[in-house]
Amino acid sequence: MRNLPVFGLLTALGLASACQVSQPAPPAVERSDVRLVPDGDTIEAKVPRNATLESLLRQHQVSPDLSASLVEAVRGVFNPRDLRANQQYQVTRTLDGFFREFRYQIDADRFLRVVARAGSVPAAPTLDVEVVPLPKEFETDAASAEISREHPSLIGAFQADGENIHLPLQLAEIFGGEIDFNSDLQLGDRIDVLFDRATRHGEFIGYGEVKGAIITTGDRVITAVRFVGEDGKPAWYDREGRSMKRQFLKSPLPFDPRVTSRFSLGRLHPVHGTVRPHYGVDYGAPTGTPVKAVAAGVVEVAGWSGEAGRMVRIRHAGGYETAYLHLSAFGPGIRPGKRVAQGELIGRVGSSGTATGPHLDYRILKNDKYVNPLTELSRMAPGEPIAGRALDDFMQTRDDVLAQLEERVGSAIAQGATRKP
Predict the structure, then answer these.
(1) What pairs with residue 293 in β-bridges?
(2) 219: helix, strand or coil
(3) Residue where a domain stops, chosen among 97, 118, 133
(4) Residue 157 needs a FRET pair 20 to 30 A away by CA distance; which of 30, 41, 99, 383 works?
């Protein structure tokens, strides 16, 4: 017996029920499935190197006038100069060859969408432009990493645990006032972190908020907990509710570079072959590595300085100055008199001046006297504590975060976190 079409079957059942009479169903009429014909053509690809938004559109037979109009329309929500190679895009045209839609994935969270408005002239349509957020889900997760001979850096240790570089980079920002990841880490040091893992359609796409982390290094246990204060802004605090933010960052570089030479009053100079003071700490790093201001201040020098090559010197509060030598380039707008924020890009590692290879010579002066950068920062006062009623709220948040960490990564956290930093 052939199957009835759905609509015919429901009608037959309804009539039979109403008449309380059982009758054979009428013979079904055979119909072929309706086949929908696509009314447009979509091309999906990746942005080639050196492409502009206009050249990309012209490549797909969008007219010169419409390409120019589209680029101009986009400027209100997205800078066309920010088009990046290897990002996904798609162009849709009608079967008549007229432009219908353009999409470009800006990053993991957003895409640019340009649509020809329905009813407008196909050859010169009115364009609707918007940046559309991509939906994603968050799930709280935890991870641990340990410094070992095989994985001596925090990046390597987390990558060995299956995480990507962005998680340890967030941790470097959080603990930047407490630890110099270029020199302070030792074999056996461990870090445990509670964070939000972002997914889309079940696939990992990145990280959300880091909620809390504990670093055990030597005989120190340093806890950081994220807390939103009464001003509505999130910040990081230690176990006692003191701010993790310090006047100075521990290092002006990302934490993969290595210390190649330390502060010394009598070092054999590698170029001149004479014994002379070395008033800074040298970080070996590839040319182009970003150099950050370790504290807010005012740029006093940004130029060529003899054997120091390209140098930036910044004056800070409390009688401090910092100097950054042998740069390959200066950061955008870095010039004498400019105010810079903590963490702002001020230059890039190089080998200008008298240098045997690319590195950063980083120096600190206190009241016009050079001091050891690796020890001076440890003498600085801890951050400001949370005040008033907010402290009780923080303590509850801290206990919740540490309980989740203990549940996910084991009792070692509970034991370690009870030790005083």
Answers:
(1) none
(2) coil
(3) 133
(4) 383
Query: Could you tell me if 127 and 167 are in contact, meaning their C-beta atoms sit under 8 angstroms apart?
Result: no
In a domain, 289, yes or no: yes
199/206 Cα distance (integer angstroms): 7
Q: List the pLDDT tens digit at each of the 421 positions of the chain.
A: 334 333 333 333 333 333 333 344 444 444 444 444 456 689 999 999 999 999 999 999 899 999 999 999 999 999 999 999 999 999 999 888 899 999 999 988 899 999 999 888 888 899 999 999 988 899 999 999 999 999 988 888 999 989 998 999 899 889 988 887 777 788 999 999 999 999 988 888 889 899 999 999 888 899 999 999 877 889 999 999 999 888 888 889 877 667 887 766 555 555 545 556 878 889 988 999 999 999 999 999 999 999 999 999 999 988 999 999 999 999 999 999 999 999 999 999 999 998 888 999 999 999 999 999 888 877 777 778 888 788 999 999 999 999 999 998 874 454 444 433 3
Quick one: DSSP state of residue 121? -
Quote the tokens at residue 284.
Answer: 């070996």
Which residues form the domain of 70?
40-133
Tokens of 289: 């590595």
Q: Which two tokens stand for residue 131?
A: 């940046």
Residues 148 and 98 placed together within one structural domain of the fold: no
Contact 326, 283 (CB under 8 A): no
d(CA 301, CA 335): 7
As a residue count, the chain comes to 421
Do 194 and 127 lie in one domain? The reply is: no
For residue 169, which of 185, 184, 153 has the smallest C-alpha distance?
Answer: 153
318: its two tokens: 């409390």
